[in-house]
Amino acid sequence: MYPAEAPASAGYRFEAVNASPYPSVDALVRAADCDAPHGLVVEAARSAIAERRASGEPATIDDLRETVRERVGRRSRPSLQRVLNATGVVLHTNLGRAPLAAAAVERITETARGWSNLELDLEAGRRGSRQAHLEPLLRELTGAAAALCVNNGAAAVLLALAAHAAGREVVVSRGELVEIGDGFRIPEVLEQSGARLREVGTTNRTRLADYERAIGPDTAALLRVHPSNYRVLGFTERVELPALAGLAREHRLALIEDLGSGALASAGPLADEPTVREAVAGGAGLVTFSGDKLLGGPQAGILVGGAEAVEACRRHPLARALRLDKLSVAALEATLVLYREPERALREIPALRAACEPAADVRARAERLAERLGGQVVETVGRIGGGALPLAELPSFGVALDGSADELAAALRRSRPPVVARVVDGACVLDCRTLRDDELELVDLPRGPGGVTA
Ligand SMILES: *Cc1c(COP(=O)(O)O)cnc(C)c1O
């Protein structure tokens, strides 16, 4: 602490120590007595002292000890952690969208633990393809001739456009030039793929003749984007898929249907969503969709369609850059297997189950939670989320807590596990559509410093 040449006189030392209105880092580290890597505790002590010094307020060891412990505790816990979703939004993008089915989790664990036949054909003893674990299932479930899986839905759209229309024109209705979420905009993805956008029609109405007039020698593809996260209501017109498919065939163009969300099985609030099978049967040469939004599976992007159309995507250099990792392959295979039995998919895929659960069951859960925490059971409106079915309202129930909504919500986020509630009409509400029965007992209102004071 002292320069080597400093006189080590007792008087000098005494004065120097007492002159500082802050403890030394060493002393604070010892006083905090944390069971954590030394460097982490030193860093926490140093930053706690530095902050106090910057504020100009003096501090003793006792003032700073708890701050250091809290900081060390926070830094020792994983940053990515489980939270309880009390928002009523099933596929909440900020909360990781879809919780996986138990079967998918098991397959992830098993695949992660050891080596696997990810790219080995066990029969032939030759190099195989990771797609071989998914393609037969996707063909079976969608009726398509071929399938390819990539890292997410956006990647699927990018790859489809790059493989089929780079350097040429893609015709898209003005009503479908949308932003899908967090800056993912159809016109920009199109530009990145190397294709050129040819807009047709108007925001609310586009007719077959609009597409027809736009087709020229440079046209490579027609793209239809499913309005999964928005709706144009009122005086609207959109060309049905079979009519567009006829036009594409006549002019030998690729037809790409970006479903995004939608449904694989028709169930509950998803009953009116276009299914992948319908899109394939309707003549879309390539259908793209999202593994978590549409299936309640892992993050993935899926392309299904004609053998040649999919093969062009498979051969494109981007396919390698966008490929799906092995843990997602494992989870996606297990999730797809569940869809072979739609009733089982409804029971075992948490996102489907949460979206389709009868409101009476949600209410019963809210009543049990209110008994534990206090507060009133209230009617709420849940959502599918993730940009899917923006207008679909899921009748739901929650517990409105007594107290300042913002303070309660902040305290719940700090509890362990963190609980993400929602603030409705000035009240902090725990929506029970997205809480599971076995999660109720984990919801707790922290009290005391930093928590909620009654
Ligand atoms: C969500 C969505 C995508 C992107 O899918 P991600 O899996 O989020 O990348 C693409 N198209 C549509 C229509 C979507 O709704």
Describe this structure in words.
The chain is of the alpha/beta class and 454 residues long. It has 3 domains: 20-76, no CATH class; 84-93 and 355-442, Aspartate Aminotransferase, domain 1; 100-121 and 128-348, Aspartate Aminotransferase, domain 2 (3-Layer(aba) Sandwich), CATH 3.40.640.10. The chain has helices at 10-19, 25-32, 38-55, 61-76, 102-113, 135-142, 153-165, 186-192, 208-214, 241-250, 276-281, 307-315, 318-321, 326-338, 342-348, 350-356, 359-373, 405-414; strands spanning 84-85, 120-121, 126-127, 146-150, 169-173, 179-181, 184-185, 196-200, 219-225, 254-260, 286-290, 301-305, 376-382, 394-401, 419-420, 422-424, 427-431. The strands form 5 sheets. Strands 4-12-11-10-9-5-8 form a 7-stranded mixed beta sheet, with helices on both faces. Strands 13-14-17-16 form a 4-stranded antiparallel beta sheet. Strand 16 and strand 17 (427-431) form a beta hairpin. The radius of gyration is 28 Å and the shape is globular. It starts with 9 loop residues before the first helix and ends in a 23-residue tail after the last strand. Mean pLDDT is 89; it is low at 1-16 and 448-454. Bound molecules: pyridoxal-5'-phosphate (PLP).
